[in-house]
Amino acid sequence: MIDHTGVVVSDFAKSRTFYEATLGAIGYEKLMEFSKAITGSTDVAGFGEPPKPDFWISAGQPNQPVVHVAFRVNNRALVDAFYAAALAAGGRDNGAPGLRLHYHPNYYGAFVLDPDGHNIEAVCHDPV
Asked: Binning pLDDT at 50, 70 and 90, where does residue 117 land?
């Protein structure tokens, strides 16, 4: 079972703002943030559903190759909201909301690129 994951970002403030807006649309919150002075290495922020973050960003040299992270949501409206929030926050389209029948009949997802080009997805596997 995965406990948490994350990505390295080149502009921490810009990415924090992007993820606050984008993940906020699906019910995630920024739950923790620690500066380099506290971690001893870099600035970090953790996002998730209270009480525990499960997705982290950290400042540094972005992952190469870029990373794909998919967030499972409970309905297709949340996929749509994620996509709209991501684009409004400066994300780039990498696949508008819609069915991806090649995965399975109810795979409804949307893909965006974050400020560093990481492929971030919201997906609903339910038929509505």
From this structure: very high
Parse the chain into domains and list their residue ranges.
5-124
For residue 13, give every residue at least 6 positions away whose Cβ sits within 8 Å of its Cβ, in sequence order, or none. Answer: none
Residue type, 38: I
What is the dotted CATH code of the domain comprising 5-124? 3.10.180.10
- pLDDT at position 63: 87
User: What confidence score (pLDDT) does residue 66 get?
Assistant: 94
pLDDT at 44 over 90: yes
- pTM: predicted TM-score of the whole model, two decimal places: 0.96
E-strand ranges in the chain read 5-9, 29-34, 44-49, 52-59, 68-72, 92-93, 98-99, 108-113, 119-124
Widest CA span in the chain = 48
What span, in angstroms and rounded, lies between the C-alpha atoms of 45 and 76? Answer: 27
